[in-house]
Amino acid sequence: MELSFSSALITGSTGFIGQALKARLLNENIHVISVDRQPEKGENCFEGCITDLDSIKEYFFDVDVVFHLAAVSHPKITELNPSLSELVNVTGTRNVLQACVDGGVKKVFFPSSAYVYGAGAVGALSESRELNPNSFYGVHKVFGEYYCKLFFEKFGLDCRVGRFFNVFGPGQTERVIPDLIRKALNDDVIEVLGSGNAGRDFIWIDDALDAVFSILENGAGGEVYNIGTGKSTTVNELVEIIKSVLDCDKDVVHTEIEQKTQDFNNYADISKLKETGFEVKTEFKEAVEKLCTINN
User: Fold this and answer.
1) CA 252 to CA 239: how far, in whole Å?
2) pLDDT tens-digit series, residues 76-120
3) What residues pair up with 160 in beta bridges, in sequence order?
4) Backbone angle region of 174, left / alpha / beta, with phi > 0 → left and psi within -120 to 50 → alpha
5) pLDDT at 261 over 60
6) Does the pLDDT value for residue 225 go beyond 90?
7) What gap in Å lies between CA 105 and CA 63, rounded to an integer?
């Protein structure tokens, strides 16, 4: 897809999605500025903390698009330290949006999460479904969405929200797919937490970025879009795919967990996303094969 903008600023460019996004933009010859609390060394990499508006606002001038990816994104951390999560994910988001208004930024992409729908949500989840977050992370992402809506209506800031489901790819750690691949390669048995019947909508990083660009180029300001594949894969199915790809015959051991709400099956309704021209290009098994090849 040909991109219509020539410059971009990324907060959180050192994270899993941020690194992939930055590489993709640079490959498209987009001028990229990154602002991070602990920036990489390099040209156009600046230090700034989104919880301190004064430390970041100078970088938001003469920028076409802002990708606001900086966040406390691991749900376990947000549960252990909800105050930090609120400071970064809520106050930090408001600061970024204010910097965008002050700097005259044309468009903003805000990554929300399927966590806004809440644990226990089943079946196809559409953007119009009632939000029912039952985690600090989910609640704080809802606040981020509301701030985007407010800045769109109050200041005319063109904010577009993408609710990521389960993005995976190279460089990701501490998530179910890399964790299971690691166990299949290194452990005596493959431990699965719970029954393994929980189903998630897993989307390959390249497809997720395609969705982001489709939203920016063909979507509408002030709107929210699910980012997924429209298909669900259970953990048990995932394990069998990984075993097949790695030619692994290790036993699978299920460990009981207290969080019964994790044993649910849902996926993104991507009807609205498809209206922007988005199509899933990478089949799930093909993506897992790519990841196993990289990690093996």
Assistant:
1) 8
2) 899 999 999 999 999 999 999 999 999 999 999 999 999 999 988
3) 109
4) left
5) no
6) yes
7) 6
Cα–Cα distance measured from residue 36 to residue 18, given in angstroms and rounded to the nearest whole number: 11
Stated length of the chain = 296
DSSP the chain: ---S-SEEEEESTTSHHHHHHHHHHHHTT-EEEEEESSPPSSTTEEE--TT-HHHHGGGGTT-SEEEE--S---HHHHHH-HHHHHIIIIIHHHHHHHHHHHHT-SEEEEEEEGGGG-TT--EEE-TTSPP---SHHHHHHHHHHHHHHHHHHHH--EEEEEEE-EEE-TT--SSHHHHHHHHHHHSSSEEEES-S--EE-EEEHHHHHHHHHHHHHHS-TT-EEEES-S--EEHHHHHHHHHHHHT----EEEE--S-GGGS-BEEE--HHHHTTT----S-HHHHHHHHHHHH-
Q: In this model, does residue 263 exceed pLDDT 90?
A: no
Q: Which of 200, 196, 294 is nearest to 245 (CA)?
A: 294
What does the pLDDT look like over 198-209, one tens digit per residue? 899 999 999 999
- 7-168+201-229 CATH pick, 3.30.70.1450, 3.40.50.720, 1.10.1040.10, 2.60.40.2970: 3.40.50.720
